Amino acid sequence: MKQTIRNAKCLVIKIGSSLLVDNSTGAIHRKWLTSVIQDIKTCWERGQQIVIVSSGSIALGRRHLQLKNRTLQLEEKQAAAAVGQIKLAHAYQEILEQHNITVAQVLLTLDDSENRKRYLNAKNTLETLLNLRAIPVINENDTVATAEIRYGDNDRLAARVAQMVSADTLVLLSDIDGLYTSNPRFNPGATLIPEVTQLTSDILAMAGDSATEFGTGGMITKLAAAKIALTSGCKMVIAPGKHLNPIARIDETRNCTWFIPETTPMSARKNWIAQHLKPTGSITVDAGAANALRHGKSLLSVGVIDIEGEFNKGDAIIIMSENKQEIARGLTNYTSHDAKKIKGHKSSAFEAILGYCGCDEIIHRNDLSLHLGEKN
Ligand code: GLU
């Protein structure tokens, strides 16, 4: 099947510093960024959801602070990021708002993807923004991130974001066309690989150790991003970013490398819930709720009969039928403590009982994996 940007439902687009920031002046390439946003607008008008992951804060800030031509200390990088990030956000806001598109800045740290509670918080915020048709512009929160707690490169950050929002397509705009059989800068015989379906050791060896002056992401971090994307059921494309309208060009020229997963984002997520998380408690549901789950519905509190174990928001829990057979696993939106309080009640009563207005569902259908033999 031909891979296209046009057919994606949810796109995460990573824009690197070396494309965005002029190497000689240290300013943003306005004309280029305007053309990227034109492409993004076309996607947005088709109804596609878009997330931008943009680097550039350190490259912009170091120039402004006149910290050029030397290796920066951590504190200097953090200071440069603080100065540069605000410039970066302004540039996106100015251009996107000319098209009447709302832009939202989200700065993430490694913990936001590695700690489940924070992961769910970030995921819910991003999904809410997307449902409101805003375009989140994401970067790492470089001002507070130190070496041990950093992603360090926005290729992997973008892949984690794609996983978080269950995106089906991740676009890495790069300063080269895609993955070559060997480094084309040194080997004129190197050829572009149009499609990769498995990250074999041969493919990984093709990455070499390419790096650019401004960006931190060479081909190695792009393949690390591909690994995250493919296990999350998300396609990834490495495409040349230097031309104007680089996103429109992907479908026009097909001069790029597509990485194709074996699964979809939804089944990858359900598989992760079912196979890789250790349940910390269980919920027993009545026959009506069990039936609703089998028909692809979320777990609501009205159908809950019993709650066992101690669990936190975001934990994996087992769902059992009245006769104590496991029927599903899922990620809970409530702690065991709060779930006990709202058990059997309608969501309209939650605020009065809990003192806060939480989710309508105990477990959302996207966070549920039905047991083997059950319909999923
Ligand atoms: N977060 C860094 C910045 O905005 C860039 C990381 C990268 O280049 O991948 O400067």
Major sheet summary line: 8 strands, mixed
Query: How many structurally independent domains?
Result: 2
CATH-derived topology of the largest domain: Carbamate kinase
CATH class (first level) name of the largest domain = Alpha Beta
Which class best fits the helix and strand makeup? alpha/beta
Beta-strand portion reads 15-25%
How does this structure look, described?
It is a single chain. This protein is α/β, with parallel strands linked by helices and 376 residues long. It is built from 14 helices and 13 strands. The chain has helices spanning 17-20, 30-45, 57-64, 74-98, 111-114, 116-131, 154-164, 201-205, 219-231, 246-253, 265-276, 287-294, 336-342, 350-354, and strands at 10-15, 49-54, 103-108, 135-140, 169-174, 195-196, 235-240, 257-259, 281-285, 304-309, 316-320, 326-331, 368-370. Helix 2 (30-45) crosses helix 4 (74-98), helix 3 crosses helix 4 (74-98) and helix 7 packs parallel to helix 9 (219-231). The longest helix is centred in the first third of the chain and has 25 residues, at 74-98. The two termini are 25 Å apart. Mean pLDDT is 90; it is low at 211-215. Glutamic acid is lined by residues 16-17, 55-59, 139-140, 142, 153-154, 215-217.
Concise synopsis of the structure shown:
The protein has 376 residues and is of the alpha/beta class. It is 38% helix and 18% strand. The protein has an eight-stranded mixed beta sheet, sandwiched between helices.
